[in-house]
Amino acid sequence: MIGSTLRRVTPQLLILGVVLLMNLAVFPGFFTIEFQNGRLFGNLIDVLNRGAPVALLSIGMTLVIATKGIDLSVGAVMAIAGAVAASVVTGGAGWFTALLAALAAGLLCGLWNGILVAIFRVQPIVATLVLMVAGRGIAQLITEGKIMTFLNEGLIHLGAGTVAGVPTPILIWLAMGTLVTLIVRHTALGMLIESIGVNETASRLAGINSRVLLVTVYLVSGFCAALAGVIVAADIKGADANNAGLWMELDAILAVVIGGNSLLGGRFSIVASLLGALIIQSVNSVILLSGMPPEFNLVIKALIIIVILVIQSPTVKHALYLLRASAGSAVPDAKEMGRNAPSAKETRP
Amino acid sequence: MKLKSTLLASTMALVPLSALAADKTVGFSQIGSESGWRAAETTVTKQQAEERGIDLKFADAQQKQENQIKAVRSFIAQGVDAILLAPVVATGWDSVLEEAQDAEIPVILLDRTVDAPDDLYMTAVTSDLVHEGEVAGNWLQDEMAGADCRVVELQGTTGSSPAIDRKKGFEMGIEDAPNIEIVRSQTGDFTRAQGKVVMESFLKAEGAENICALYAHNDDMAVGAIQAIKEAGATPGTDIKIVSIDSVPDIHLAMLAGEANATVELTPNMAGPAFDVLEAYWADGTMPPKWIQTESKLYTLEDDNQAIYDNKKSLGY
Fold it and tell me: Do residues A249 and A215 share a domain?
C-alpha cells in the first residue's frame, strides 16, 4: 500500500522538491529551522502552517471531485464557520463550544450542497455556486459586516498556538488527512466513491447507495472547510467575513488538480492533493521571499503552475515514456508497460 | 402632506437661528455597509445633519450602482434641496447627474469621484491619498531624526488607487531622508490575514533585528503584522516602529498597548465639509471649488487613544 502510494505521488514529490529548491535559490536560509519562543520557527514550518487552510479544503475537495462533482462553496463556508465561532465565543461560551458550533455550521452547509446534488440532481457546479455567493452574505450578516474580534485563548490557540512546539494548524491538517485517508482506504468507501465518479448509474445498478455517498462527500467537504475557517479566524483573532477564504476554493481545486486527480472523477489520492496544497504554498513562498514587486505575483504563480500542469499532462507523460523506452531496451516488457504507460494506468481497477 | 408642512412650519418657528439649513432636505445615497469605515461615515453624516437641523433622507444601495441611480432619481422626484452621493463605481453617472442638474439640485460627491464632466456636480469631498502617505512618511522621518532605518512596506491591493497613491505619498514623505530605506515591499491585500502572512516572510527574509519600521497602507494589515512580529519574538512598537493609515478603532487599541506608533486618519466626516459648502451656497450662492480635501490627521502615542477608541467604536466601526 505504501509502495503504491509512493509511486502514485512521485511526480508531486519531485515538483515539491524543485519548488523548494527554488525557494532555497531566492533565500539561502530557507531550510533553517530554529526553536524560538517555545515554537518551531522557519520558512519550512511557515509553508506547512500557511498551507493548512488549502490542505484541509483539498481533503474534502478530493472526495467531491472523485464523484465527478465540485464544491465551489468552501471559501464561503470558511467565512461562515469563522463568523459562527467568533460570535459564539464573544457571546461568552468556551472555545470548544465555539469549535463545535462552527463545525456544525460547516456540516449544515455540506448537507445543503449534498441534498441539492444528490436528491434534486442539480449540477454540482451550479448547486455549490449558490452557497458560494450567498454564504459570504450569511457570514456578513453574522458579523454585521465588521471584523469580529475575540480574545479567547483556547480558540486563538487553534490558529496561532503550538502543541509541543509545532503550530496547531499543521497538526490539524495532518490528523484530518490521515484520518480521512485511513477511512477511505481501509474500507471499501474509497472504491465506492470512485465508482460513482466513473459511472454513477452503473454503480447504483450494482447496489451502491449513491445518494448517501454523495451527501457524505459534501458533508466531509463542509466539515473540512469549517475547520479551515476556524483556523483562519483564530490566526488573526477575528472573523473577517469579507476576506476569509476569499477565492480559496480555486486554490483547493488547483491543489487537487496538481495532485494529478482528474476533474472527471474516478481514481483519487488524498496524499497527492495534500502535496498539491504544499506545492501551491511553496510557490507563494518563492514569490514572497524573492522580493519581486507585487505586480509580478500572479504572473510568476501562473507561470510556475502552467509548467507543473504541462509536465503532468498525458501528452508529456507519454512522450517521456516513449523517450525512456527507446533509451532502454528497444521493446519494454509487458510488465514495465503496465506500470508506466499512462493509458494502461488509467484503466487499472 | 398638509401635516408635514405644518410640522415644517412649526420647526422653523421654534428654531429661527438655524433656519437657514433647518428647512432643507438632503438625500444621501450611500454605497452600502462594505466596511466599518463606511458604517462610521453613515453615522457621522446622520449626526452632522441632525446637528444642523437638516432633514436627511438616507438610501443604502447595497453595493449596487442601479440602486444608487434609483435612489438619486427618487430624491429628484421628491424635490430635495441637495444630494450627497458616495459613488460605488466611477463610470455611468452622466445621465442621472444631468437629470439632477435639470432639476437644479446640487450634487456633492463623497469619498470617491466619478468619470463625468465636473460641471455635472457641485464639488467632491475626498481625502488626498498621496497626502496620507506623505504624513506617514514625514512622521517616520521626524521619529528617526537621522538614524538609519530599514523599512518594510505592506501595500494595499495591487493596482488599486489607495495602494498606488499611499506608496507614492510615503516615498515623497521620506524623500529628504537618505537614512530611511524601503528594503521590502509586498502586497497584503488590505487584509489582516495577508498582512500577517507577508510580515512573517519579511521577518524571516530580513531578520527581525534588521527591520526598524513597518509602513502599512491600512491599519488592518498593521494589526495582522503586529501578531506576526510578536510570534517572531520581537516587540512591535519598540523593536519595530509601526505606522499605518485609516485610524480604525483596533489600531488605537494596539497604540494603547504600545504595539503601534502612529496612524493617519481617513476621516469618516465627509458630510461635515459638504454641509458647510451647501449652507454657504444656500446663504448667498457661493460656489465651492471642485475638490474639497479632508484633513489627514496624524495620531501618535501622545494622543488619548482610549478616548479615540471609545469614540470611534460608538460611530459603528
Answer: yes
CB contacts < 8 A (A, B): 77
The span from the CA of B177 to the CA of B146, in Å, is: 7
Question: For B226, which residue in chain A has the nearest alpha carbon?
Answer: A236
Contacts of B34 in chain A (CB under 8 A): 145, 242
A209-259 confidence digits (pLDDT tens)? 999 999 999 999 999 999 999 999 999 999 999 899 999 999 999 999 999
The answer to the question of residue A306 being in a domain is: no
B197 touches chain A (CB under 8 A): yes
Give the number of domains in chain B.
2
Same domain, A258 and A347: no
CATH of residue A283's domain is 1.10.3470
Q: What percent of chain A has pLDDT over 90?
A: 83
pTM for the whole structure: 0.87
Task: Please give the pLDDT value at position A340.
Answer: 44
- Which percentage of chain B shows pLDDT scores above 90? 85
> Are B52 and B154 found together in one domain?
no
Contact check, Cβ <8 Å, A145/B34: yes
pLDDT for B16: 41
Distance in angstroms (rounded) separating the CA atoms of residues B143 and A32: 34
| C-beta atoms of A289 and B201 within 8 A | yes
Grouping H, G, I as helix, E, B as strand and the rest as coil, residue A232 is helix
Chain-chain contact of A240 with B193 (C-beta, under 8 angstroms): yes
| Domain of residue B257, residue span | 129-266+303-308
Query: Residue A337 pLDDT more than 60?
Result: no
Phi first, then psi: what are they for B189, rounded to 5°? 55, 25
Name the minimum distance, in Å, from the CA of B191 to any CA of chain A: 7
The answer for residues whose C-beta is within 8 angstroms of residue B81's C-beta and 6 or more apart is B24, B25, B26, B105, B278, B282
Cβ pair B214, B199 in contact under 8 A:
yes
Tens digit of each residue's pLDDT (9 = 90 or more) over B26-58: 999 999 877 788 889 999 999 999 999 999 999
Chain Cα centroid distance, residue A328: 38
B244 and B148 fall within a common domain: yes
Residue B227 inside a domain? The answer is yes
Q: How many domains does chain A have?
A: 2
Average pLDDT for residues A111-135, to the nearest whole number? 97
